[in-house]
Amino acid sequence: MMRLRVGGSALLLASFVTFALAGCDLKEFTVGTTAPVLRAAADSLPQESDVQLARDSAPASLKTVEGFLVSAPKNEDLLSILAQGYIEYTFGFLEDDYESLPDDAKHAAERDALAARATGLYDRAQAYAIRLLELDDKHFGEMFRKDVASAESEAKKLEKKQAPGLLFTGLALASSINLNRNDLARVVELPKAIAVIKRSHELDPKFYNAGAAMTLGIIYCSQGKAIGGDPDLGKKFFEEAINATGGKYLMPRVMFARFYAVITQDRPLFEKTLKDVIAAPHDIWPAQRLPNELAKKRAQRYLAHVEDYF
User: What angle do CA 229, 86, 145 make, to 5 degrees?
Assistant: First the structure.
């Protein structure tokens, strides 16, 4: 009799599970169980030592995640992967291509095409970042699109959990502005980018290897004090970003040379910083091998064009 009761209970449980699954979206359920695996896979990309392999594989990986997102449009892991992934792909590879091309009439069309493509992908990343924030604050996108005061006020409502979405929103926007400095409609949006990046920095300054601090350093050192920049403040943000990883994350050091040393016209600092990056061991931080390889590549290019900056 005991066996029959156990068997009956098992049959009843199986029937209940089948009924429950029939009442939900099976695709979304499947994606929900797969998304953490995709998150772990995405987190492994920075460990890649072969830059070309990473470049070739990234687009297919991102499109795969977008395919999953169709079935689960509010999945937090997927939105985070896409916001971060499109920023990294665009900055690490497309902007690198753009900077590598001579800024002359012969290459103008190619540069314009690259800038347009990079801008589109930054806009895509921003859209995903805003959707990520809207999982907790359904009004964020609406308020962000209004004006600086509205965007800043809405960002103040968010907590530490939303620091990634805030950073990726501001970083994508600031990056697209940098590529379109002659587009006034974009340039006037920079205070919004600064506002949400600052809020991310307030909530979690160490997130993304102090990415908010590095980004603010770039912004404040992009122009001199006479036209609204603040190199002294930018230097403090750069130092914070560098110190956050004990200098093992090389990109802040490269950006420090490219922006702070250039805006202050400190050529010895520029050259020493970049040479130190180039000389750093390739395995200085295995977990961040790929971004460090990309940092070394930029350092070599900037150093080769030192006469253009000084």
Answer: 60
